[in-house]
Every structure is written in C-alpha cells, then in structure tokens.
Amino acid sequence: MKKSPPPCSERGTGVKTTLKKGTYAVRKGKLYFQKTDSSKWEKLGDASWENTTGIAAHKGWLYLIQDGKLHRVDPSSGVWYPKPLDGPECQWYLGWPGPIWSDGKSLYAIRNNGIEKLDFDKARSKVVQAFPVDSITV
C-alpha cells in the first residue's frame, strides 16, 4: 500500500530525524541510501522524486528540490514534508532548479542571480551574495 504524504499543514517539526553515515541519492526517480561500508542501496519511502535537481543534508534532515519546490525529507523513512507555513500554498515554490547545500549552520541555494540563505520553517530566504548580471548579445 502506497503511503500518501502528510497533510498540507504538516512541517515535520515533531519528528526526530537522524542522518546515517553513507550516501543519499535519487536514482530512477526514487530516494536511496547506501551505507559507507556496503554496495547495497536501500530504497527510502515510496515517493516519486523525478525531476529532482538538488539534494542536501542539513540539521538531521534531507532537503530536496523537485520541480522548483523545496521538500523536507526524513532521512530514515523517506517521508516528506512539503509545507513550511500555514496558508493557501502547500509547497514552497522557489522557481529555480539550482543546487542546494549546507554549511552545517544554514541551508543555501542559488536563486535569482545570487546565493540565498533559506529558512524552511519560515519559508523565507535572504540574499547573502549577489552575482553581477551580464547581458549576452547573440
């Protein structure tokens, strides 16, 4: 039986998560984990992760960007939490395919010609480094 995602108002704030030592990856549209000392990949959950363009580990969670939307994912079960805030939207649409990463303190992404610091719980971002915008004539 396929598990449906949590209700739209769920952020996963009551969930205790633990990142395991190893590699997390999206392969053939599914989320997988591989232990450091193993060659076997373990599928996490049943969610489809087609069109995932970024994945990062941050403060016990995995964060994935899929079709421009940011998802918080439990790294042990694969259960995802799409909703950062109460309101009409179910997902935080960031509108970019970019890379996402963590420095251990904050979550960052390339967005709108700059590096932005992301706060999933508040669905806010702050530009920390703008890139110069150059025009190209063809």
Describe what this molecule looks like in 3D.
It is a single chain. With 138 residues, the chain is mainly β. It has strands at residues 22-27, 30-35, 41-43, 52-58, 61-66, 69-73, 80-81, 92-93, 100-102, 107-111, 114-119, 124-130. The strands form 3 sheets. Strands 4, 5, 6, 7 and 8 form a 5-stranded antiparallel sheet that branches. The chain has a 4-stranded antiparallel sheet with strand order 9-10-11-12, with no helix packed on it. A hairpin with a 5-residue loop joins strand 2 and strand 3. The protein is globular, with a radius of gyration of 16 Å. The termini are far apart. The mean pLDDT is 78.
Notable characteristics:
138 residues, mainly beta, five-stranded antiparallel β-sheet, four-stranded antiparallel β-sheet, 12 strands, globular
Number of helices: 0
Order of helices and strands: EEEEEEEEEEEE
Question: How many strands?
Answer: 12
Provide the β-strand percentage band. Answer: 35-45%
Distance between the termini: 53 Å
Q: Quick check: average pLDDT?
A: 78
Q: How does the helix and strand content classify structurally?
A: mainly beta
Helix content: under 10%
Q: Mind describing the biggest β-sheet?
A: 5 strands, antiparallel
- Tell me, briefly, the overall form: globular
Poorly predicted runs? none
Using the CA coordinates, give the radius of gyration: 16 Å
Short description:
The protein is mostly beta strands and 138 residues long. The chain has strands at residues 22-27, 30-35, 41-43, 52-58, 61-66, 69-73, 80-81, 92-93, 100-102, 107-111, 114-119, 124-130.
